[in-house]
Amino acid sequence: MSTAGAAAALRVQVWRKLRSLGALYLQQSVCLLPARDEVVREVRRLADRVRQQGGSCRLLHVGLADEAERAQVVAEMSAARDEEYAEVVERLPEFVAELDKERARGRTTYAEVEESEADLQRYQSWLAKIAARDYFGAPGGEAAQAAVAAAAAELASFEQAALSAEAPPEHVPPSGETAQQDQGVSPNRNRGSRR
């Protein structure tokens, strides 16, 4: 695709879209993507937008007959995804360290849980975007999935501590008031009302 002569905003949109699809650039304005239905559909939409806004493009279906060359392309695309996965893994310790810091400060509160949930959701979303363009199962994907799952487990532990810290103490009835508990009635601990 060439956006020469088109608005600068279009150039940025094209670059971002191709990057989000996981394009492998061979040279400026020439890139490869696998011919999967969802990818082809997105590239065609992008090509239409480029043409409507004064740019030009050609979509070519290329087959790699040489197995060694195909393996090289797959390796390059997988290496790009591995770099992205590694960045997720590299940043997750900050998330866990923040939870540890809040524990040490005695701030295991539901407000902190909500803030940390939002942070974890960003990591999960980031990981999902990378996985969507990981067409060949880059090896770093498993480590990134495991790291995000471990962070989620840390947050669940933090949430349990917050619940214990903020929940009202259990009422211990005098010896004659056990009938309610015997009938299966327990204190209402609906966390949803704390949001």
Write up this protein.
By secondary structure, the chain is mainly alpha-helical. The protein has 2 domains: 8-52, no CATH class; 73-166. The protein contains 6 helices and 2 strands. The protein has helices at 8-21, 37-52, 67-104, 110-132, 140-166, 179-182, and strands at 24-27, 30-32. The chain has a two-stranded antiparallel ribbon with strand order 1-2. β1 and β2 (30-32) form a beta hairpin. The longest helix has 38 residues, at 67-104. It is elongated, with a radius of gyration of 26 Å. It starts with 7 loop residues before the first helix and ends in a 13-residue tail after the last helix.
Largest sheet: 2 strands, antiparallel
- Terminal CA distance reads 48 Å
Number of strands: 2
Tally of distinct domains: 2
Form type? elongated
Q: What is the topology, as strand order, of the major beta sheet?
A: 1-2
User: What percent of residues adopt helix (DSSP H or I)?
Assistant: 55-70%
Q: What is the tally of helical segments?
A: 6
Work out the radius of gyration.
Answer: 26 Å
Protein topology:
Blueprint: H1 8-21, E1 24-27, E2 30-32, H2 37-52, H3 67-104, H4 110-132, H5 140-166, H6 179-182
Antiparallel strand pairs: 1-2
Helix pairs in contact: 1-2, 3-4, 3-5, 4-5
